[in-house]
Amino acid sequence: MRWKLSDRNLSLPVTRNGTVFLVRDRKTLVALEDRTGKEIWTYSPVSGISAPLIAPGTLYLFSDSSNLVALDSRNGKVRWKIPTEGSHQLLAVTSTMLFYTAGDPSLCIHAFDLQAKKSVWKYEYLDLSNIPAGSSPDGEVEMEEEEIPVLGDFLLGEGMIFYALESGWGDSRVFDLYALGE
C-alpha cells in the first residue's frame, strides 16, 4: 500500500493527471498527489460543498449556498462562481456542457453551457407538487421512503441522455429507463 487517508466523511474521489480530488467532511475539497497522498491544495468555502466533477483543467462543484463553482484543478483557485437555486447533484460534464439535477418543487435535469455560463435547458422528471399531502399537522408531504423515486444511473451518449429512476423496495423495486434527445 502506498498511502492511506482516514477521515470521518470522505467523498468518492476523482482523479486526473496524477492528482486525486475528494471532499472531506462535506466542507473541504482536497487535492492530493496520487503516488504519495501529499496534500497539494485545499478549497474551503464558507458553506459545505458537493463532490466534484472534473474536466480537463477544471473542477466543478456546488456549494451548500447553491453556487455552481469552477476551480482551476492545478491550484484550487476559483475561476467563476454562479448562484443557482435549490439543492443540486452533479451528474456529468463534457468539454462544453455540465449536467446536474436541481429540486424544489420539481426535480429537473439541467444542461448548463460552460461557455455561456447559463442553463440552456431543463427536463422535469418528477413534479413534487403533485404528491398529495399526508396526515402531518403542518401539511408537509409525507411519503414512505420506498415511495420516493431516486435518480439512478445517468449516461451521456451520441446525442442522447439516458437516466434511470428507481422506486419501490425489495421485491417491489422498479427501475425505469428514460432516453432524452433527438
Can you offer a commentary on this structure?
The chain has about 180 residues and is an all-beta fold. It has a domain of about 80 residues: Thrombin, subunit H (Beta Barrel). It contains no helices and 15 strands. A four-stranded antiparallel sheet has the order 1-2-3-4, with no helix packed on it. β9 and β10 form a beta hairpin. The radius of gyration is 18 Å and the shape is globular. The protein starts with 13 loop residues before the first strand and ends with a strand. About 10% of the residues have low confidence.
Structure summarized in a few sentences:
The protein is mainly beta and 182 residues long. The chain has strands at residues 14-16, 19-24, 28-33, 39-43, 53-55, 58-62, 67-72, 78-83, 88-93, 97-102, 106-113, 118-127, 150-157, 160-167, 174-181. The chain has a 4-stranded antiparallel sheet, with no helix packed on it.
Strand content: over 45%
Helix content: under 10%
What would CATH call the architecture of one domain? Beta Barrel
Q: Give the class from helix and strand content and strand pairing.
A: mainly beta
According to DSSP, the number of beta strands is 15
Q: Number of helix segments?
A: 0
Rounded to the nearest angstrom, the distance between the terminal CA atoms is 48 Å
Described by the principal axes of the CA atoms, the overall outline is globular
CATH topology of one domain: Thrombin, subunit H
User: Which residue ranges are poorly predicted, with pLDDT under 50 across at least 5 consecutive positions?
Assistant: 131-148
CATH class placement of one domain: Mainly Beta
Average pLDDT confidence is 77
Strand order, sheet with most strands: 1-2-3-4
Instruction: Report Rg.
Output: 18 Å
Q: How is the main sheet built?
A: 4 strands, antiparallel
The arrangement of helices and strands along the chain is EEEEEEEEEEEEEEE
